[in-house]
Design goal:
Helix content is 6%, strand content 64%. The protein is mainly beta. Strand 4 (63-75) and strand 5 (80-85) form a beta hairpin.
């Protein structure tokens, strides 16, 4: 799947489900599932912003509303995608990883990305009307896997 095909799939996302698992020895609270909607904004031809909102349910049974904002950027000249978390606002993104094609229907992070002491990596696959994105965060106090299923229909 080439960059343009991936970009069209990402632009069509409207809903999400995700599961967070942690095997860290210290309790991080990142155990549970979430689901919600995705509003996709396109501030430029090379940028998509996901505004996510929904419900999160922890493994302990606590449920609450969540919001997240992520920015995808495509680099047509290199064939790469980057993903940033906009937790501090659009002007202060936190880089998560860059992805490159790694085979038919699979994209992988080009290198581990370090944020403070934490290391981020990811793999993305495509199914019928679904974009699967699994990212891993490892560090001195973290050992987490976040599995997203982005759906192109609600």
């Amino acid at each position: 799947m080439d960059l343009e095909d991936v970009w069209q799939r990402l632009a069509g996302v409207r809903a999400l489900e995700f599961r967070a698992r942690s095997t860290a020895t210290t309790a991080t609270g990142w155990q549970g599932v979430g689901q919600g909607t995705v509003e996709v904004q396109a501030p430029s031809e090379e940028t998509l912003v996901y505004r996510e909102q929904g419900q999160w349910k922890s493994a302990a049974g606590t449920s609450f509303a969540f919001t997240n904002s992520y920015r995808w950027t495509r680099y047509s000249s290199s064939g790469l995608l980057s993903l940033e978390h906009l937790r501090f606002g659009d002007e202060r993104p936190v880089s998560l990883f860059e992805l490159a094609a790694a085979g038919e229907g699979e994209w992988r992070s080009t290198a581990a990305h370090f944020c403070s002491e934490d290391c981020y990596s990811a793999v993305m696959h495509f199914g019928d009307e679904i974009v699967h994105l699994e990212w891993k965060v490892n560090g001195p106090n973290k050992s987490e896997v976040i599995s997203y299923s982005y759906r192109e229909v609600c």
